[in-house]
Amino acid sequence: MSRSISYITSSQLLSLKRRPNIAIVDVRDDERSYDGHIAGSLHFASDTFLDKIPSLIDAAKGKDTLVFHCALSQVRGPRCARRFADYLAEMKEDAGIKNIMILERGYNGWEASGRPVCRCTEIPCKGDSKVPSV
Ligand SMILES: [Zn+2]
């Protein structure tokens, strides 16, 4: 049985982001390195995504909500979210993850609506600690 995947808007994500139990998973490929990214997001490129699922589960330890996105969240984001859900279903474990979501309109929509972006080159991004609270 495969779990359902829901969509979340950028404004919903912005308010959820303050919770410590959410992980944002950027599955863009090269674009991440020159387009900026959502502060604190993890990077698991779609082209190697399947192989990296175990390390994603590791990186998301302690989180119960994973939000996937790519540039537009039309192809890569939903596909990786689905693969991740299928993987958990096959493993018959949930790794503590209750919600799998997709960011509507992806990174481009996030940036276009003026949400804060991070342009650091750190891996993993620690951007959240540097974002001034408003
Ligand atoms: Zn960053």
Automatic annotation (TrEMBL):
MF-aspect GO terms: arsenate reductase (glutaredoxin) activity; protein tyrosine phosphatase activity
InterPro entries: Rhodanese-like_dom, Rhodanese-like_dom_sf
EC numbers for this chain: 1.20.4.1
SMART domains the UniProt entry points to: RHOD
Source superkingdom: Eukaryota
PANTHER family in the cross-refs: ARSENICAL-RESISTANCE PROTEIN 2-RELATED, M-PHASE INDUCER PHOSPHATASE DUAL SPECIFICITY PHOSPHATASE CDC25
Protein name per its UniProtKB record: arsenate reductase (glutathione/glutaredoxin)
Organism (species): Coffea arabica (Arabian coffee)
